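Morning run. Coffee first, then this:
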Amino acid sequence: MAGKVFFSVSMSLDGFVAPESVPLDDIFAPENQDDPRVRHWMAQWGELQQWIFPLRFFRENLKLGEGGDEGRDNDIARETFERTGASVMGKRMFELGERSWPEDPPFHTPVFVVTHTKRDPWERLGGTTFHFLDDGIEHALDQARQAAGDRDVRIAGGGTTILEYVNAGLVDEFSVTVAPVLFGTGTRLFDGVDASRVALEPLRADPTARVTHLTYAVRPR
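And here it is:
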């Protein structure tokens, strides 16, 4: 039995899933680390994801050592990982991660990258292999479903790729982790959503001391 297609992202209280875009070369170039744009991007990204850094599961998954916080946030992070049999992501998310993920990336499953550039599969430690597909989001999802078996497929991001899958009617469920931060500008999760085609059914709300996790089923309108 095929699993669900879902996404799970952190979001600022005003609806952004990423800070205002900065060229990747600027973010990672040592000579640009004092650039105010880069410092602002890094600070906002850190605030958005701050809830996950102390978690026991996060530390285990990235092999950062023992210890870490437990509780509902940790349970949700672990459950999201365990349900995922394969992931799909866009080119920019991959390029950002390619420069920052460790040799053993945090997926441990096949990952299908939607891109316009052909490239041989990139095999990493821990069971993660990146496959690069240049023939559209539906083909990437088909490949991910086959790889996932009876587990779920996660649309990992970024926001533009998630929105493409939502507007194509290919997402069954999603969770947003609302962080108590305001961005003002950046990548809005639902900027450009085809609201005439998408209806939501609330499934769960999990408030914790750090964030609020909201989960919805996606229905055709």
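The chain has one domain: 5-220. Good start to the day.
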